[in-house]
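Subgroup meeting minutes
Present: P.N., E.W., G.H.
Scribe: E.W.

1. P.N. recapped why we're keeping a running log of single-chain structure predictions: easier to compare across weeks, and new members can see raw inputs and outputs side by side.
2. G.H. added today's entry (78 aa).
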Amino acid sequence: MHLDRAGSPRAARAYLEAALGEIERHELLAAREHLARGVAVAEASVDRIELEAARGGVELALGDSAVALESLTTVRSV
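Output recorded in log:
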């Protein structure tokens, strides 16, 4: 995404919005990619919390309970 390459603090939110759109279309693998990138660039705690919560749900739906638990545990610690 362009915001990411520009180093914008809005990049994490853009990745979250893209992931939510993919989730609505049941494109969970694409959502997983957006969420992972969003987590990597997130600076604000609120963005990190929302990204990790969504990531936990996606990972659980994809059957990776270990990663889901890790993401949801991160939400509690932020």
